[in-house]
Design brief:
The complex is a heterodimer of chains A (221) and B (252). Chain A is mainly alpha-helical and 221 residues long. Chain A is 81% helix and 0% strand. Chain A is built from 9 helices and no strands. Chain A has helices spanning 3-17, 20-28, 35-59, 65-86, 90-114, 122-145, 156-176, 178-181, 186-220. Chain A is globular and about 50 Å long. Chain B has helices at residues 3-87, 92-119, 122-127, 129-142, 161-182, 218-230; strands at residues 147-153, 186-194, 197-204, 233-238, 244-251. In chain B, strand 1 (147-153), helix 5 (161-182) and strand 2 form a beta-alpha-beta unit. In chain B, strands 1-2-3-5-4 form a 5-stranded mixed β-sheet, with helices on one face. The N and C termini of chain B lie far apart (72 Å). Classes of the chains: A mainly alpha (221), B alpha+beta (252). Chains A and B meet through helix 6, helix 7 and helix 9 of A and helix 1 of B.
Chain lengths: 221, 252
């Protein structure tokens, strides 16, 4: 087996359990977390549970793709509420709210009419990634314009936003072409999902940094 | 999809994902670095504003101290001179009262000069930091309360008056704290001018104190704030009962 495949297999396995790190930190520091970060912790718990169920279904050779349809909606709604809380302007809050509603309707319609529960929901996943990347960039524009003097690297929202932007902008191409990946060789599929695993690990590491910083600030205050 | 197409497709996908990853990282770094640059510029601007405000305040204090010294002090001196001239014209009981008034006026004149000196030490501007600190240490030594050793290494480089005044006030606060609270028998104050760096080291052999303990507030905060405005680093170490050591370092 080529060394690169071994490497990507290891990355895929590590990425599957990487969610444990922010979950442990969130549980340990839960009482110091803000409402937004508690919501994020809840989202992490749901992600972990769905991953476990998906893994179990895969092990008994059952199709688990329908879970992804539900998870996409839950994940988007979770992140949309987090961004709703992070944005201060009424204009952005309204945009997040309406985009959230339109996306949920779109995801439901997509699952019913275009991409059934037995297939990858590439449309919903890629649209979700684009929308979350848009929220993230909008949030960076907001903090960039702000005249408040504070160090971004000491701000939890900066790191969590970085986690969203890096993961969803990097992975949206993969989500968009997930169905086409089935035509690739097993070697290529592992390579592509291995690279996705790297982004996922970075995503969880950045979320962990954000939660850690937020809880420390709360303690020091 | 044949094998060549699938090879191309996976390559394009990986390159696309890597490109998006790099783009996202670039956006984050851009925001981080540019925001930091803005913060630094704002801090420099704030520092400039504070320096200007302090310079104006010091100028006003100087004018006030000079007015106090010249107008009030001068007025009292003139009254003293007049009273001295009148004194011989009075008989004994009144003469004694006049003597008493003269003594009170002398004390008042002394107080006015002291207040004027405390507001802005004239010697600092005229003779410089080293001479003024040396004089301050000499005065405490002469009072017999404790031994004060003052040392200066290197050639004195004059700084802005506001900087010298801030250092002088930090020294005064340190000396005052030692005299009031530490039960020291000895103070060592060293000033070093070395390759564009000014270092002030202050030590006493008193009881020491717990840093950040309650009740050690405003004096310490004032010293910290003054050194921050100066752009200097200021460290204080103390252990009960081993005395304290303070070090101020400033780039000239």
């Amino acid at each position: 087996m080529p060394l690169s495949i071994v490497f990507f297999d290891v990355i895929i396995k590590v990425a599957q359990v990487a969610i444990i790190v922010p979950l442990i930190v969130a549980c340990w520091r839960f009482k110091y977390l803000s409402r937004t970060l508690r919501l994020l912790s809840g989202l992490l718990v749901i992600s972990a549970l769905i991953s476990i169920v998906a893994r179990y279904l895969w092990s008994i050779k059952e199709n688990n793709l329908y879970l992804l349809h539900y998870y996409t909606v839950i994940e988007f709604c979770g992140w949309a509420v987090i961004f709703y809380l992070l944005f201060e302007s009424k204009f952005m809050k309204r945009i997040v709210f309406w985009i959230g509603i339109v996306f949920v309707l779109f995801a439901i319609v997509n699952s019913i009419f275009w991409e059934g529960l037995e297939t990858f929901n590439t449309n919903s996943r890629s649209v979700e990634s684009i929308l979350l990347s848009f929220f993230s960039i909008a949030y960076y524009v907001k903090i960039f314009k702000e005249k408040r003097v504070y160090r971004l690297e000491c701000s939890a929202s900066f790191w969590i936003n970085a986690a969203v932007l890096i993961y969803f902008s990097s992975a949206f191409l993969l989500f968009g072409f997930s169905n086409l990946l089935l035509n690739l060789s097993s070697y290529k599929i592992r390579e592509v999902w291995g690279i996705h695993g790297i982004f996922l690990i970075v995503h969880y590491v950045l979320i962990t940094v954000g939660i850690w910083i937020a809880s420390n600030q709360k303690i020091s205050h | 999809m044949d094998s060549i197409q699938s090879e191309d497709f996976s390559l394009i996908l990986i390159v696309g994902m890597a490109g998006m990853f790099l783009l996202a990282v670039s956006i984050i770094l851009f925001v981080l670095i540019y925001k930091r640059k803005i913060i630094e510029e704002q801090l420099v601007h704030q520092q400039d504003l504070i320096q200007t405000a302090i310079a104006i305040q010091e100028e006003e204090r100087k004018r006030f101290a000079a007015d106090l010294h010249d107008e009030i002090g001068g007025g009292i001196s003139t009254i003293l001179l007049s009273i001295s001239g009148l004194e011989n014209h009075f008989q004994l009981p009144v003469k004694e009262k006049v003597k008493g008034i003269r003594r009170q006026l002398n004390e008042l004149l002394h107080s006015v000069r002291e207040i004027s000196y405390n507001i802005t030490p004239q010697a600092l501007e005229t003779y410089g930091l080293i001479a003024t600190l040396s004089d301050l240490c000499y005065q405490i030594q002469e009072s017999g309360q404790l031994d004060v050793y003052f040392k200066c290494k290197g050639k004195e480089e004059r700084m802005d008056f506001s900087k010298e005044l801030a250092i002088y006030r930090i020294c005064k606060e340190l000396l005052s704290n030692t005299i009031k609270h530490s039960k020291s028998s000895q103070i060592d104050l060293s000033v070093i001018y070395n390759k564009n760096v000014f270092v002030l080291i202050y030590k006493d052999n008193g009881e020491g104190f717990v840093i950040n303990a309650k009740g050690k507030g405003s004096g310490m905060k004032n010293m910290m704030n003054r050194s921050k405005i100066l752009g200097a680093t200021f460290d204080i170490k103390s252990r009960v009962p081993k005395g304290m050591e303070a070090c101020l370092t400033l780039k000239l």
